[in-house]
Write a structure and sequence with these properties.
Helices cover about 40% and strands about 20% of the residues. The longest helix has 22 residues. The radius of gyration is 28 Å and the shape is globular. One of its GO terms (cellular component) is membrane.
């Protein structure tokens, strides 16, 4: 069948694309698929779906087969297709064949399993072939997207897909501790993961704020330290089976020796300081630590691991191990004596000693250890999996020493960040190994600067400029003693003034897309701002007059990865910590951007074009809604709750259009504002407008794409921009009335005022741009000052349309020479 089908297509193929998102269909349209498949061959012909679909499964395990058939028949029916229960001559067959038939009982997914599949659409039906159940599941996920986007035309282009993932570990961490997540909410995320081809559910079950599973061995954990919110063992087994049927592994996290406040409440005798403890409901890092010198601690760990081994069949068990505050160890005479006995010089040595004991316990229960960066130590066996939240430098160092490693830094979706930032976050990208060699005619200049934050220490940085004959050749940025990165230079927005140099430079840092907009004056120093995503932070600094060419040569850069180092990086995990996440906005925070992260881990690394990604992500958002994810529903329901008695279709539409101009503040800005307000804790309400606001405005994405098209010479794009700006402008009077009379929305009036001002400026710029009327440097400075002054006051909600207005001004304003 495969050979015949391939031969049939040879005469009609119009495009053969390997690893390509730019696939040409019969109607010159690319199929909207996310992740991009490894290979796709497409025909100019199409299969018309004019009969009921019938799904036939051969070779799958019996339990999974029944689940899959019911699941996808319902999904196809939800898309509007007729579905037949059994094969007949009048039905259109979808034949799924697993080449190596599975055992009659369901097999749990494992690391490095074969996930390859082939999907062929021919003149008579759809054929799927896979080596395992799990490849077949991925094929059905791909087919689901194809069918969804063909639901109006009822036509599928004849094609063949040959697909498998680049990385074997493609995960999502959900934090059920800080805010509890119900079983239905978790099931929904698992269904979304399957649609995006994510294959590991990392379940964070224990932390300072709660213990979330029922322990038979140590029952006071859930009785005293869960506030009654925990999963029964039956519920856990159900989730493991449900995930397995979708092809998803479940890895639990049991956090030791730190993040142990909940353990301290239930069993204080296991702690370094034995005293009564209360439930912790604040967010942050806390001092209670298990006592590594007590034998009963290891008896406790052994019993918990034994329970988890029964509940979770996956070979890996995550022990956390991050953010250990050593004060209690340092203050304990017992622990200090234990360290001297075992020749342990530092708290890090003690944690590594503790981890070797925990690893031995895991081995007795046929489990492999997994943990965050901090557990890394050469004393551990090399099958320990390290999950890096500290960044690519840490990831590279760990993998270079032979340890399997995962990247999570850059995939923290609890932070509001642009999807494009996550999409650029390549696990194997190590940055520049060294700075470029200096030429004799090149001069260097270095500046030190400080960026204060609302919580925690300020970020300190160094800016290094390389120039020749007053031309800036290269810019390098370093933040908090991390490796230097070469910055991308952006066009200057504000015209220069006498004696001043202006610089706009961008890197991706651990905080997010980081854009430095700086004024450099050797006499008065460095001033300006740094934008982390959409959040504005002031920055000041001074010239480093001691910086030499030798210092430049010795600047630290991230080392290049060897082939073996790259081999040890097995993929990555998105993480959704739940300080500011509840069931009511869980999906808003996760989808659809998890599809882009999934593509980064599944598809070839060469696909990093954000324009192409967003072209597919926006319709994928509607697909995600159609398969039952709640990101759109939660947004609408949140706004309807806030409108209360003023809820009506007109008012809801007004508020949704206003939301198009707004975004939650990027990075951890919201967390830090909550901390300053005394609301950084488990009981703080999370039911305001910002809690339902999508991470990115799809309309602003569209506006920026249209602006790029206009800059590229497509003049009609400016009309599209004007159309959106006029629509917003028509709303402001009604919005003012609505917000004023609605108590739960009244706090948005300052944002409305700024949005209105920004939009008036944008309309004026666009109109002048249309008739090619120049904007003088003095006008530009005044407009920039008008837009930026309100941005200096940090808020949880950012009027992100002001940043678009600035970009519009940079495009249409008087060119800077």
């Amino acid at each position: 069948m495969i050979v015949r089908f391939k031969t049939l297509l040879c005469g009609v193929i119009t495009s053969v694309l390997m690893l390509s998102a730019n696939i040409v269909s019969a109607k010159d349209q690319a199929p909207i698929l996310m992740p991009v498949p490894a290979s796709l061959v497409q025909s100019a012909q199409a299969l018309t779906i004019d009969r009921p679909l019938v799904l036939s499964l051969t070779g799958l395990s019996s339990q999974r087969s029944a689940f899959v058939k019911t699941y996808y028949q319902q999904q196809f029916s939800d898309f509007g297709y007729q579905v037949a229960p059994v094969t007949s001559g009048s039905a259109l067959p979808i034949n799924v064949t697993v080449q190596a038939p599975q055992a009659s009982t369901s097999q749990y997914p494992r690391l490095n399993q074969n996930e390859h599949y082939q999907l062929r659409i021919n003149n008579t039906g759809i054929d799927i072939s896979a080596t395992s159940d799990f490849g077949a599941l991925h094929a059905l996920s791909t087919l689901s997207q194809l069918l969804y986007f063909a639901r109006d035309s009822r036509e599928l282009a004849l094609l063949q897909i040959d697909d498998s993932p680049r990385f074997p570990w493609r995960g999502l961490l959900l934090d059920s501790v800080r805010h509890f997540l119900s079983i239905p909410a978790i099931e929904r995320q698992l269904r979304g993961m399957a649609a995006a081809k994510l294959n590991v559910f990392h379940w964070h079950l224990t932390d300072d704020q709660g213990w979330r599973y029922a322990s038979a061995a140590y029952p006071k954990l859930h009785q005293l330290a869960s506030d009654g919110q925990y999963y029964t063992q039956a519920e856990i087994k159900h989730i493991v089976e449900y995930a397995s049927n979708l092809g998803i592994r479940v890895v639990p996290e049991f956090d030791v020796p730190g993040h142990a406040s909940a353990i301290a409440v239930a069993y204080p005798e296991l702690m370094t300081q034995v005293k009564p403890y209360q439930m912790e409901d604040d967010w942050g890092i806390f001092e209670p630590l298990l006592d590594p010198s007590k034998p009963e601690v290891y008896v406790f760990i052994d019993a918990i691991v034994a329970e988890l081994a029964e509940l979770f069949p996956d070979p890996y068990l995550h022990i956390g191990g991050d953010e250990v505050h050593p004060k209690h160890w340092q203050d304990s005479k017992r622990v200090q004596a234990y360290m001297r006995t075992h020749k342990l010089n530092t708290s890090a040595d003690l944690q590594a000693h503790f981890n070797t004991k925990v690893q031995a316990i895991l081995r007795r229960h046929n489990k492999k250890m997994m943990g965050w960066d901090e557990i890394f130590h050469p004393a551990l066996d090399q099958d320990v999996m390290i999950q890096s939240w500290r960044g690519k430098a840490s990831l590279s160092q760990i993998a270079a020493q032979g340890y399997p490693a995962l990247l999570s830094a850059g995939f923290y979706i609890d932070q509001p960040q642009p999807t494009a930032y996550h999409y650029r976050n390549e696990p194997l990208d190590t940055g520049l190994p060294t700075a470029h060699p200096l030429n004799d005619n090149e001069a260097i200049q270095a500046w030190d600067f400080t960026m204060p934050r609302l919580k925690g220490s300020a970020v300190r940085g160094k800016l290094v400029l390389v120039s020749s004959q007053q031309t800036l050749n290269h810019v390098y940025l370093q933040l908090n003693d991390r490796p230097f990165k070469q910055a991308r230079l952006d066009s200057r927005l504000v015209p220069p003034e006498a004696g001043l140099s202006r610089l706009n430079a961008t890197i991706d840092s651990w905080m997010g897309p980081t854009r430095a907009e700086l004024t450099l004056n050797p006499e008065s120093g460095l001033t300006g701002r740094i934008l982390i995503g959409n959040a504005v932070y002031p920055v000041t600094g001074k010239l480093d007059t001691q910086f030499t060419r030798a210092d430049f040569t010795n600047m630290p850069f991230q080392s290049a990865m060897s082939t073996q180092t790259q081999h040890n990086i097995l993929g990555g995990e998105a993480t959704l910590w739940s300080e500011l996440v509840t069931e009511h906005n869980l999906d808003v925070r996760s989808w659809p951007r998890l599809f882009a992260i999934a593509e980064r881990l599944w598809s070839a690394r060469q696909y990093s074009d954000p324009t192409n990604m967003y072209r597919r992500l926006l319709p994928i958002s509607d697909f995600a809604d159609a398969i039952g994810l709640h990101h759109q529903k939660q947004f609408r329901q949140g706004l309807k709750r806030l409108l209360a008695k003023h809820d009506s279709p007109h008012n809801l539409a007004l508020l949704m259009r206003f939301a198009e101009q707004l975004e939650p503040a990027s990075y951890y800005t919201r967390h830090h504002i909550k901390y300053q307000q005394g609301l950084y804790h488990q009981n703080a309400p999370l039911d305001s407008f910002v809690d339902y606001l999508p991470i990115e405005s799809h309309t602003l994405i569209t506006l920026n794409q249209k602006l790029a098209q206009f800059k590229g010479g497509e003049k009609t794009a400016l009309e599209d921009i004007l159309r959106i700006l006029r629509t917003w402008n028509a709303d402001y009077a009604d919005l003012t009335t609505l917000l004023t009379k609605t108590p739960s929305l009244r706090a948005l009036l300052p944002q409305l005022k700024l949005a209105k001002t920004s939009n008036e400026i944008a309309l004026s710029i666009a109109r002048r741009c249309k008739i090619q009327t120049p904007i003088s440097p003095s006008e530009t400075r005044l407009l920039i000052a008008t837009l930026r002054e309100p941005q200096s006051q940090m808020q949880e909600i950012v009027v992100a349309s002001t940043l678009f207005t600035e970009s519009l001004l940079a495009t249409c304003g008087d060119p800077v020479r």
